[in-house]
Amino acid sequence: MNKKIILVSLIILMLIAGLFVLTGCGNNENGGIVESNKLSNNNSSKSVTNEFSIGDKNFKFDKETTFNDFVYKNADGLEPDESKMAVYLNYKNNDIYDGNYVFRIAMSYKENMSLDDVADQYKGKSYENKNNNGLNWITYESNNNNIDTIVYMTEKNNNLYVVNIAKYEECNIDINSLAEIFMNGVTIK
Fold first, then answer.
1. 3-state secondary structure of 47
2. pTM, rounded to two decimals
3. Mind listing the pLDDT tens digit for each residue in 98-156?
4. Are 185 and 166 within 8 A, CB to CB?
5. H-helix or E-strand spanning residue 2
6. Closest Cα partner for 14 from 127, 130, 160, 131?
7. Which of 65, 72, 86 is nearest to 160 (CA)?
8. Which CATH architecture group holds 2-188?
9. Looking at the DSSP assignment, which residues form a beta bridge with residue 144?
10. pLDDT in tens, 31-75
């Protein structure tokens, strides 16, 4: 009974987080990797930068920041918006998209929960396992209410950790590059 209550709570938390993942789109200005300051990706010999650009705005993910057990690289211009269970990094630019976020990164955790407790959320989807910074992440793509989201989930220290990287589907930024750059700087204590 207790696990069912926890599972229902997590599902509600993820649905609420999904509502906050609203993002905006650009004016045909591609966002993508800036080819400088290359970092070694732990998955392969391929190198990844720590910079992402949208139009003339450049984000350099090089500021070590913490939230709960998350240790991640943040960029100037992205102020963390923290709650007790989650932190949001939002980029808003009315010149690119008026009234909505251009992209949103949300990190959350749930104590005393494992990947098995939420298996129904990813088992029905096309998911893959990725090793990033020594952690095995389950990752999949989701589209709800015209919002493209790349979801990463892992468990450590008897807790479940989730990272959502999202944008509106019609937005012309490379969410895969943003996810790769951001996740390259994420670890769990």
1. strand
2. 0.77
3. 656 889 999 999 999 999 999 988 888 899 999 999 999 999 999 998 899 999 999 99
4. no
5. helix 2-19
6. 160
7. 86
8. 3-Layer(aba) Sandwich (3.40)
9. 147
10. 554 433 333 344 444 567 899 998 889 999 999 999 999 999 999
